[in-house]
Write a structure and sequence with these properties.
It is an enzyme of class 7 (translocase). Pfam families: ABC_tran, TOBE_2. Keywords: ATP-binding, Nucleotide-binding, Transport. This is ABC-type quaternary amine transporter. With 370 residues, the chain is α+β, with helices and mostly antiparallel strands. It has 2 domains: 4-227, Rossmann fold; 240-365, Nucleic acid-binding proteins (OB fold (Dihydrolipoamide Acetyltransferase, E2P)), CATH 2.40.50. Helix content is 24%, strand content 34%. The chain has helices at 42-50, 96-106, 111-124, 140-152, 170-187, 198-204, 222-227, 232-237, 360-365, and strands spanning 4-13, 16-26, 31-35, 57-62, 65-69, 72-73, 81-84, 158-162, 190-195, 207-212, 215-220, 242-250, 253-256, 262-264, 279-284, 289-292, 301-311, 316-322, 325-331, 339-344, 350-353. The protein has a 6-stranded mixed beta sheet, with helices on both faces. The longest helix is centred in the middle third of the chain and has 18 residues, at 170-187. The chain binds adenosine-5'-triphosphate. Adenosine-5'-triphosphate (ATP) is lined by residues 13, 16, 18, 36, 38-44, 196.
């Protein structure tokens, strides 16, 4: 299977620049996810790879073939890419087998060969027995598998999936996610996946590309994206995160605005957050904060008040008041109320320049009125 190379891709709709200088290379067999909030340009990027949109600038190449750029534009039907979109768009008046036959007819595959390919594709998605059913006789999950089989039936070089699971209910979606991952691994097909669901991106991907307002913000493995987000915005978007503003008072010390207390932080920080005297945002994940027995001494011991608690099966989630801030903490300790002692391991903290914009809803969540 070939590599997918997108270089300096830009796209404008009239005056609106929706993609700016997007560059990434997807390796053979990789599961690569474009992740970001609604409107950031994920689907447009995928559409430029598919040939459904013509880029304003930059290049798109698969293997040694340039599909777009330098005066070239190959239409979608010339690209041999498999596509599945949010609405599976099966033809309702055709059986499963007839749905799968359509792309083969368009490619003028002979009838006997068609039959073999349809049987193979349905076996891949576990629906060999369903070839004569109509779409309305299938569950949502099964319809989505048929859509996938229809995209695989002509052996595409790359699979492009745009929110293919978003029409499924939560439980079915979890099952479909696991199934899709197994299938992709078995087939070893290079896959570009679009989602705004961070859990889905973390669970499925070999690498994730996080986009924001038409820019590529970070590309990395799920672990890199979650544990070392490049910006506070990525930290806020991928997983839950607390943000505390303060002033850097030493190479490894920040005085927090919310309590006036100083905490020890790692000496390494995101570029622009390193200068002593500068304003910073400290980001820390809820599961990296620890509620301990009162009276504990040591580094980064803070006092907070329990505002609310909720039991979510595998753990308890607490909203705590820390000075004039609300922070979220995950804990195994049930039934905590009143004052609690909190430990913030220095290594759990990540520092960003405080000018790093946070989404408004996150900023609003972290402040409490007195
Ligand atoms: N055909 C079009 N004409 C004009 N503007 C468009 C067109 N298609 C997309 N846009 C705009 O481009 C921007 C990016 O859209 P895109 O669909 O790529 O975002 P997205 O990240 O996939 O969002 P979502 O998750 O909501 O699908 C949006 O502001 C959108 O309104």
């Amino acid at each position: 299977m070939p590599e997918v190379k997108v270089a300096n891709l830009s796209k404008r709709f009239g005056d609106n620049a929706v993609l700016r200088d997007i560059t990434f290379t997807i390796a053979d067999g990789e599961f690569f996810t474009l992740l970001g909030p609604s409107g950031c340009g994920k689907s447009t990027t995928l559409a430029c790879i598919a040939g459904l949109e013509r880029p304003t600038g930059g290049t798109v190449a698969v293997g040694d073939t340039t599909f777009a750029g330098a005066g070239t534009f190959v239409p979608p039907e010339g690209r041999n890419l498999g596509m599945v979109f949010q609405s599976y768009a099966l033809w309702p008046h055709m059986t499963v087998a007839q749905n799968l036959a359509m792309p083969l007819k368009i490619r003028k595959v002979d009838r006997r060969e068609q039959d073999t390919l349809i049987t193979e594709a349905l076996a891949k998605v576990g629906l060999a027995e369903y070839r004569d059913r109509y779409p309305h006789q299938l569950s949502g999950g099964q319809q989505q598998r048929v859509a996938l089989a229809r995209a695989l039936v002509y052996s595409p070089s790359v699979l492009l999936l745009d929110e293919p699971l978003s029409n499924l209910d939560a439980k079915l979606r979890d099952q479909a996610r696991a199934w899709l991952k197994r299938l992709q691994t078995e087939l070893g097909i290079t896959t570009v996946y679009v989602t705004h669901d961070q859990d889905e991106a973390l669970a499925l991907s070999d690498r994730i590309a996080v986009m924001s307002k038409g820019d590529m913000v970070q590309i990395g493995t799920p672990q890199e994206i979650y544990e070392t987000p490049a910006t506070a915005e990525v930290a806020a978007f991928v997983g839950r995160c607390n943000f505390l503003t303060g002033t850097k008072t030493g190479p490894e010390e920040v005085r927090l605005d919310c309590t006036g207390q100083s905490i020890t932080v790692p000496s390494s920080s995101v570029e622009g957050a390193g200068d002593v005297g500068g304003r910073v945002t400290v980001a820390v994940r809820p599961e990296r904060l620890e509620i301990v027995s009162t009276g504990r001494a040591g580094v980064n011991v803070l006092t907070a008040q329990v505002l609310t608690s909720s039991y979510v099966g595998s753990r308890h989630e607490y909203d705590l008041r820390l000075g004039d801030h609300v922070i979220q903490v995950e804990s195994n300790r049930p039934g905590l109320t009143g004052e609690v002692t909190l430990v913030v391991e220095p290594e759990a903290c990540r520092l960003y320049p405080s000018t790093d914009a946070l989404p408004e809803d996150v900023a609003a969540l972290t402040t409490v009125s007195h």
